[in-house]
Amino acid sequence: MKEILKVDNLKVDFYIGEQKIEAVKGISFSLFSNEIVAIVGESGSGKSVTCQAILDILPSYAKVEGNILFQNKNIKNLSKEEKRQIRGNKISMVFQEPSAVLNPLLTVGEQIVETIKAHNNVSDKEAKDIAIQTLKKVEIPQPEKRFYQYPHELSGGLKQRVVIAIAIVNNPVLLLADEPTTALDVTTSAKILDLFLKLKEDYKMSILIITHDLGVVAQVADRVIVMYRGEILEQGDVYQIFENPISEYTKMLLNSRFSIRSRN
């Protein structure tokens, strides 16, 4: 498989006043083409910080060391314009709370079209057609109607599908998903995860999912990275991690609550 992302000895420290917080402590991992990798761990383990470092969207008081290579290019060595061209285009992100991401003053269609036109030289009509087709791909019913609706008119599950549509509309190589089902009920969460599996196959994209939910891991992941207090404790094939965990922390997380054998 082709290596899409390589994180090499990534360290992230936050400097707040006189205080130094070591959020990520020298982690390394790779992500390959057409696979789903889950980073799992409790709050404060450094999962989301790792995701933000990949996109280079950490706050100014963060100090980042190490290398992040995307398609063999070191992200930290790219210009601002080169990074802008990558974000929302080759690398996209799905955040955990869609209401915090979507602009309440713009229609669903306007927000998708805005993303399309930021990276493509297309007409308004072409952008609209692409947006509606993308709404169909994320299985939103009546996409022509939804195109003209505002976020407050949609359910939580539909809003998350809109966020996913915005993330995939430019056919990214890598999709980052930070706790994408946290704000959703169990049934809706399962449907969103099924959608991720479908998108991986349809778009041949790689997906990095950040989660604390082992149910999410069992349902979609090919490989798993277990993080604790800024460090990687272990990583491996999803079956290996579930059936033969090495670290005591992973064993505690599993605690006999899930069996990977139940996965289809």
From TrEMBL:
One of its GO terms (cellular component) is plasma membrane. It is a peripheral membrane protein. Residues 5-254 form the ABC transporter domain. SMART domains: AAA. One of its GO terms (molecular function) is ATP hydrolysis activity. Keywords: ATP-binding, Cell membrane, Membrane, Nucleotide-binding, Transport. It is found in: Cell inner membrane. Coiled coil: none annotated. The keyword Hydrolase does not apply. Its main location: membrane. Signal peptide: none annotated. Belongs to the ABC transporter superfamily. This is Peptide/nickel transport system ATP-binding protein/oligopeptide transport system ATP-binding protein. It comes from Venenivibrio stagnispumantis.
